[in-house]
Amino acid sequence: MTLPTPQPPATDADTRVRLLDAGGAVFAEHGFRAATVRDICSRAGVNGAAVHYHFRDKAGLYRAVIEHAFHAALDRYPPDLGLAAGASAEERLHAFVRSFLLRLLSDGVPAWLGKIMAREMIEPTDALEHIIAHSARPLFERLTAIVRELAGPDASVEHVMRASQSVVGQCLFYRHCREMIRRGWPESEPTVEGLDELARHITRFSLAGIRATRVGGRA
């Protein structure tokens, strides 16, 4: 009779990662308020006290889940995608758009992150301020710096803000409306293979809009 090989005990780091992965799936499925620590620990296969040990409470785990996913996505697809120093504003805009689409649509990023963020837009939690301060705002400021350079020195703060929001909106459309596109217009469904062309399209469209509304050349 062959006895099963004993599995090594989980380390603190292993337990933490399992909680983050399980937490992401459960929060996306049920939302922060309906998700329970018991369900998360059961899915992770860890003791019920592990959440308190690693994250203090459910809210702490929720913030950590989002931070972990954001940082992992940014590590894999940084906003500049490794552009050389001295790249033009046009090149930096394209890199920003392409990296954003990769983080939104690539198989390399957990699908549950998009679901959690969609829930935050509908039923915001206390974590939203943390998300804005530590993840969304730094990225958006990087984008507005690029747009400001493209829009020219006389561009107003409002113009730069709206142009930047338009860039983000074009990218988010393909994430939040993906199922509608798949069912209604399957021929234009975004795919990983088509991301490069989609990034070029959004970049060209955005550049044309920014240039058309520069001070002195308003459309």
Short structural description:
This protein has 219 residues and is an all-alpha fold. It is 71% helix and 0% strand.
Provide the CATH topology of the largest domain.
Answer: Tetracycline Repressor, domain 2
Distance between the termini: 81 Å
**What proportion strand?**
under 5%
Provide a count of the helices: 10
- Work out the helicity level: over 70%
> How many strand units?
0
Would you state the CATH class of the largest domain? Mainly Alpha
Secondary-structure element order, N to C: HHHHHHHHHH
Major sheet: none
Give me the secondary-structure category.
mainly alpha
Radius of gyration: 21 Å
**CATH homolog superfamily of the largest domain:** Tetracycline Repressor, domain 2
Q: Provide the low-confidence segments as ranges.
A: 3-9
The domain count comes to: 2
Q: Give me the CATH architecture of the largest domain, please.
A: Orthogonal Bundle
Mean pLDDT: 92
Structural description of this entry:
The protein has 219 residues and is mostly helical. The chain folds into two domains: 10-63, Homeodomain-like (Arc Repressor Mutant, subunit A, Orthogonal Bundle); 77-212, Tetracycline Repressor, domain 2 (Orthogonal Bundle). The longest helix has 25 residues, at 127-151. The chain starts with 11 loop residues before the first helix and ends in a 7-residue tail after the last helix. It contains ten helices and no strands.
